[in-house]
Amino acid sequence: MDHTLIDSKPVMSNLAFETVQNVAILGATGTIGIQTLDVISQHPERFNVFALTANNNVKSMISLCQQYTPKYAVMLQEQAALALHAALKAVNASTIVLHGEQALAEIAGHIEVDTVMAAIVGAAGLHPAMAAARSGKRILLANKETLVMAGSLFMRAVEEGGATLLPIDSEHNAIFQVMPRQRAKNLVDMGIKRVLLTASGGPFRNASLDDMRAVTPEQALNHPNWVMGPKITIDSATMMNKGLEVIEAHWLFNASADQIDVVVHPQSVIHSMVEYSDGSVLAQLGNPDMRTPIAYGLGFPNRLESGVSSLDLIKIGRLDFSAPDFSRFPCLRLAYDALKAGGTAPAILNAVNEIAVEAFLAERIGFMDIPIMIESVLTTSGIEDVASIAQLAEVDAEARRAANIWLKNHA
Ligand code: NDP
Fold it and tell me: Which of 92, 296, 334, 403 has its CA 20 to 30 A from that of 178?
């Protein structure tokens, strides 16, 4: 399989930096969306906010639309779109308000859009990301679920659509930064032995299994290093986030499961590493602030001011590393297993995980029930080869149904 991300053709050949880029931010009200707007507002001469999208957060969208005056605003929910339209009309704002999944995909593929920040959370991000890929956009991919669910189809769409894919997840962005600019078809041809994804270990890095069984949503939402949306914060606490990232790295860098290792690094200063065949290990370091990878994606191949403070290594003093504990963090093992199983297994893993995280946040299941539920549904589901987005939508819906039945029987 060809991967445009690691192709040797020059990236961004069609976008001169002197021209103002029209940016569509999918998931504008989320933590990545807001940080993207923060970086963009530091460079008004380079970026124009063309479209903003959200699910139903009208209040936040009203203020974002007033501040950034996008041409389009899209809400997933119709009622939210009506409320946003009324509020913007009352202040004579010219933003056109649309709603629904179709509108999200149309905006992602809109002819006037140069760059798409794909920062919707969860499986909902897949369709707009596919639309951006098919339309040949420069895609800043934060929504890792797109690659977990539909890696083969998405990478093919990127290739066929002539899109440029830039990873925003800090680990993959770090790997992208320390890989050779001249890409080959696989890691070995680039002299790369393996990639090392760093993981903070989350809030329960040192907790006992007994303590982890009693964890509350409030404790799990308290990440030691990163400020993120609730879903990815819970995923970080279970280390499912790292598991999803292993699958993401597989598709982005054409790396097999045994070429991807996870290293627990509690300070979150090294964002990931690449080990070359001569023994050299290259790392990207920085403060844990998503504005760095966002600015890298927006400015690539140039560097942009991001507003992130300088890394003070003397103050940090030491960097620690340890191996991940698969027995206390079974979600990480489940993700490796799903990657090795291939086909629709990662899509099932992702769907059940989304239901499990919601159920945990609603206090319907315990923290350590999350991997039990995922494993139970995965082992009883049939795994098929991935054929189409429509098939994946069915697989996703079926996995959610099975997860809800599990919940009924166990919650
Ligand atoms: P948030 O929960 O903070 O924001 C999610 C955004 O998606 C909001 O704008 C939300 O709108 C919108 N949204 C939610 N559901 C839907 C839906 N069904 N259809 C359309 N839009 C929807 O998430 P994050 O910003 O933390 O994460 C976004 C993505 O980036 C995730 O895939 C995450 O894994 C990834 N990521 C995040 C990082 C981080 O530091 N936060 C780091 C690396 C990757 P509304 O506000 O209206 O609900």
Answer: 334
Identify the DSSP state of 368: T
φ, ψ (nearest 5 deg) of residue 288: -70, 90
pTM (global) more than 0.85: yes
Nearest Cα residue to atom 2 of ligand 1:
229
Sheet holding 270-276, edge to edge: 260-264, 192-199, 270-276, 281-285
How many Å apart are CA 110 and CA 120, to the nearest integer? 17
Residues near 261 by beta carbon (within 8 Å), at least 6 away in sequence: 194, 195, 196, 197
Measured at the alpha carbon of residue 378, what is the angle toward residues 385 and 238, in degrees to the nearest 5? 120
**Distance (Å) from CA 27 to ligand 1 centroid:** 5
Pocket of ligand 1 (CB under 6 A): 27-33, 54-57, 76, 119-121, 124-125, 142-145, 169, 226, 228-229, 231-232, 290
In this prediction, residue 343 carries a pLDDT of: 98
Report the C-alpha gap between 234 and 240 in whole angstroms: 8
Task: Measure the CA–CA gap between 352 and 360, rounded to whole angstroms.
Answer: 12
CATH code assigned to 342-410: 1.10.1740.10
d(C-alpha 170, C-alpha 294), whole Å: 9
Provide CB contacts within 8 A for 191, sequence distance 6+: 180, 276, 277, 278
CATH 1.10.1740.10 domain extents, the chain: 342-410
Q: What's the rounded Cα separation, in Å, for the pair 225 and 191? A: 33
Nearest to 371 by CA among 349, 343, 392: 349
Q: Give, for ligand 1, the residue of 53, 62, 120, 168 to mutate: max count of ligand atoms closer than 8 Å to Cβ.
A: 120
User: What's phi and psi for 164, nearest 5 deg?
Assistant: -115, 125
- Is it true that the peptide bond before 330 is cis, omega within 30 degrees of 0? no
pLDDT tens, 121-169? 999 999 999 999 999 999 999 999 999 999 999 999 999 999 999 999 9
